Structure formats: C-alpha cells, structure tokens
Amino acid sequence: MNKVILIGRLTKDPDLRFIPGSGAATCSLTLAVDKYNTKTGQKEADFVPVVLWGKQAENTSQYMVKGSQI
C-alpha cells in the first residue's frame, strides 16, 4: 500500500454529508498544497480534492474551517 502525506490549507469549509440508508458520514474538502517551481523560481499551489469517511469526517467538519492548516 502506498502512503501520501500532504500538508496544506483548506480552500473552503469542509462539507459534511450523510449517506441515505446507511447514515455513514462523508466529508469533502479541497486542500491547497504549496510547491516551488524551479523553472520560474516562484511558489505555486496544487489543489487536491479529498474525501473523508466516518468519525474522521465528522471531526474534520467540526474542528476545521477555511484556511486551517492540515
């Protein structure tokens, strides 16, 4: 299994939803991750869509807001 560790800031408040029927929590967010472009010598950002499930989704939507670093 591969592991990826990203550090960035939330572009907007996390969106918490519950799946009809099962009631499972899901949270969608977009993470802005800074990178350095060696050709231009400037900072740029990659925007990574992330989906969280279960208790992790509930905790993230409760404690994280736009601009939070995660």
Summarize the structure.
This protein is mostly beta strands and 70 residues long. It is built from one helix and four strands, in the order E-E-E-E-H.
Question: Could you characterize what this model shows?
Answer:
The protein is elongated, with a radius of gyration of 15 Å. Strands 1, 2, 3 and 4 form a four-stranded antiparallel sheet that branches. With 70 residues, it is mostly beta strands. The longest helix is centred in the C-terminal third of the chain and has 10 residues, at 54-63. It has one helix at residues 54-63; strands at 9-10, 15-18, 25-37, 42-53. Helix content is 14%, strand content 44%. It has one helix and four strands, in the order ββββα.
Compile the SSE list and pairings:
Layout: E1 9-10, E2 15-18, E3 25-37, E4 42-53, H1 54-63
Provide key terms for this protein.
single chain; 70 residues; mainly beta; 4-stranded antiparallel sheet; 14% helix; 44% strand; elongated
| Poorly predicted ranges | none
* Shape summary: elongated
Major β-sheet annotation: 4 strands, antiparallel
Q: How much of the sequence is in beta strands?
A: 35-45%
* Main structural class: mainly beta
Q: How much is the radius of gyration in Å?
A: 15 Å
